[in-house]
Amino acid sequence: MHFTKMHGCGNDFVVLNASEVEGADLPALARRLCDRRFGVGGDGLLVPAPSEVADLRMVYLNSDGSSAEMCGNGLRCLARYARDRGLVGPDELTVETGAGVKRVWLRPDGSSRVEMGPPEVGEAVSLHGYTFLRVSMGNPHAVAFLPSREAVEELDLAGVGPLVERDAAFPEGTNVEFAFGDGGEGIRMRIWERGAGETLASGSGSCASAVAAISLGRARSPVSVALDGGSVLVEWDGGGTPVYMSGPAEYVFEGRLTGSSVRA
C-alpha cells in the first residue's frame, strides 16, 4: 500500500489511494498510520474518493479514527495531490466533504484558495474560566480570545483543550481555539482539535477564529492567521457570505506500507 505524507502549515496527513483501501477498516488504518511512534505519523488520514456531485470526495479521519465533517488544511493537500496525479484538472476543482461541496482554486506552487462556505455564528458560552464563541464551518468550533499574544503562547492548551472539547455544552465534541487580535488584519491562534489533540494548524479553525475576530471587532478582513506551523489568509465580508481561505500544501515524503511495517 503506497502512502504520501503531506502538510499544510504543519497540520500533517497521510494520503492513500482510494483503490488500495477499498473495503479496508479505515478507522483502524488511521489509528495505525497516524501513530507518531509506530506508524507514519499524522494528524489525520486523507483519501480522494469518487463523487457523484463533485470532481472528487474527501474522506477524512482524525488520528484517533473518528471522522470529521471538514478539514481545511487537508482539503488543500487533497486538492494538490489529486491535481498532481491527474485525477482532476490543473486549475480548479470541486470537492465533496461532510460539510458540503467546496470549490478549490489551485496555484502553480501547490498552494490554493478554498471557498469554505458561509459560517454560522452562535452564542457565547462561559466554560472553565473562558468565554467561547460558537462558530460552525460545517464542523463545530469554540473560539476564546485572550488579552495578549503572550497569553496565547503561554496557555496550557493540553490542560484546558480536552476539557472544552468534551464538555457537555458540546454533545458531539468541538474544536477549541484560543486567539488574540487587536483589531488589525492579523490574529494569533492555537488549536486543540477534536479527535487529534493539539496540532500546529487548522484550516477550518483558522476560518472560525477569523470569523469570530471579525464579528467581535478584533480583526478586519482579510485576516492573516498566525499558527504554530505557519499562516493562512482568511477573507470574509460578514453575514451569510462565504469564507475564503488561502494557504500552502506541501509534500513531506512517500513510502510503502508492507505488512506491519512502514518503509519510507
Automatic annotation (TrEMBL):
PROSITE patterns per UniProt:
DAP_EPIMERASE (PS01326)
Per UniProt, subcellular location reads as:
Cytoplasm
Is this entry keyworded Ubl conjugation?
A: no
- GO CC annotations, alphabetized: cytosol
Q: Which terms are listed as keywords in the entry?
A: Amino-acid biosynthesis, Cytoplasm, Isomerase, Lysine biosynthesis
Positions with a binding annotation for substrate: 11, 62, 72-73, 139, 175, 193-194, 203-204
Q: Which reaction does it catalyse?
A: (2S,6S)-2,6-diaminopimelate = meso-2,6-diaminopimelate
Does the keyword Cell membrane feature in the UniProt annotation? no
Molecular function GO labels:
diaminopimelate epimerase activity
Q: Which residues form the active site?
A: 71, 71 (proton donor)
Q: Which chain positions carry the site (Could be important to modulate the pK values of the two catalytic cysteine residues)? A: 141, 193
Tell me the InterPro entries matching this sequence. DAP_epimerase_AS, DAP_epimerase_DapF
Q: Which residues form a coiled coil?
A: none
Q: What Pfam families is this protein classified in?
A: DAP_epimerase
User: What pathway, per the record?
Assistant: Amino-acid biosynthesis; L-lysine biosynthesis via DAP pathway; DL-2,6-diaminopimelate from LL-2,6-diaminopimelate: step 1/1
Q: What is its main location?
A: cytoplasm
The record's top EC class is isomerase
Any one biological process term the GO annotation gives: lysine biosynthetic process via diaminopimelate
Under which EC number(s) is this enzyme classified? Answer: 5.1.1.7
- Superkingdom is Bacteria
Give the quaternary structure: Homodimer.
Q: Return the similarity comment.
A: Belongs to the diaminopimelate epimerase family.
Q: What does this protein do?
A: Catalyzes the stereoinversion of LL-2,6-diaminopimelate (L,L-DAP) to meso-diaminopimelate (meso-DAP), a precursor of L-lysine and an essential component of the bacterial peptidoglycan.
Protein name per the record: Diaminopimelate epimerase
Report the source organism: Rubrobacter radiotolerans
